Amino acid sequence: MKKVVTIQDISCFGKCSLTVALPVISAMGIETAVIPTAVLSTHTGGFQGWTFRDLTNDIPDIAAHWKKLDLKFDAIYTGYLGSKEQIKIVSDFFDDFGREDNLIIVDPAMADNGKLYAGFTDDFVQEMTKLCSKADFIIPNMTEAAFLLGIPYKEDYDRAYAEDILRRLAGLGCKTPVLTGVHFDSEKQGAALYDSVNDKFYYSFRNNIDKTVHGTGDIFASVFTGAAVLGKNYQDMIGIAVNYTVDCIEVTLPHFDESWYGSSFELCLGKLIEYVKGDTNENA
Length: 284
Ligand code: PXL
Description:
The chain is α/β, with parallel strands linked by helices. The protein has a domain at about 85-275: 3-Layer(aba) Sandwich (UDP-N-acetylmuramoyl-L-alanine:D-glutamate ligase). Helix content is about 40%, strand content about 20%. It has helices at about 15-25, 60-70, 85-95, 120-135, 140-150, 160-170, 215-230, 235-250, 270-275; strands at about 5-15, 30-40, 50-55, 75-80, 105, 110, 115, 135-140, 175-180, 190-195, 200-205. A hairpin with a 5-residue loop joins strand 9 (about 175-180) and strand 10 (about 190-195). Helix 1 (about 15-25) packs parallel to helix 7 (about 215-230), helix 2 packs parallel to helix 3 (about 85-95) and helix 3 (about 85-95) packs parallel to helix 4 (about 120-135).
């Protein structure tokens, strides 16, 4: 069986980070180990008064134990990280567990809609930029890409701009950057992947839904990780991730008022399993 370790927080209520990554990657038939970086009572996107227990100091001990056990992973996938100190420790984990034949996937989960998430600063962004340089794939949205590159966030842009951003992201040191939430008009939204080794761009779009649903970045990154580990080609990696993410948004909309804090991804897991079995997911 393929084996992934995902390193991110556990938000006890709210459906993001580990409570999404674990079920989603498992549903794709992949063994999923976890390193929780912090325990929060809820995520920080719309709730007030959340608790935060930092688990940074546990990470080196977990890594040391796993070294003794000689554990090996097909991919290391990181999401939301709580502090710049934590990013440094995760970077050491990459040095210990990264190998020629495994994948490092970094979702620099730190910002959306032009703004950093609560509690993040420029120092954090700098450290995250360094972490991205060690990854095989990074999966920022347009806001995160702007922060990583130190440029202003743009709401409206064209294909040439998106491709320039992807080239510049590759310049940070990651050979295959992926941009999420890409849209060139109000009709379609999706993702773009840049294979810098072959200088080739891949796109996948679905009809645009003009609604932000919390945790969908984590869903995209989890599915993308699963698809990469299963050896799907670049077009299918983004195709499956876009399709499942949009399915999750669509299924949430009818009861969004009660479920404003996260998508009803559970209702579409059957479809994800079908996408994984499918031969092609081209929908560009
Ligand atoms: O979905 C990203 C995320 C993960 N974890 C926590 C968050 C967020 C986004 O707000 O608050 C704790």
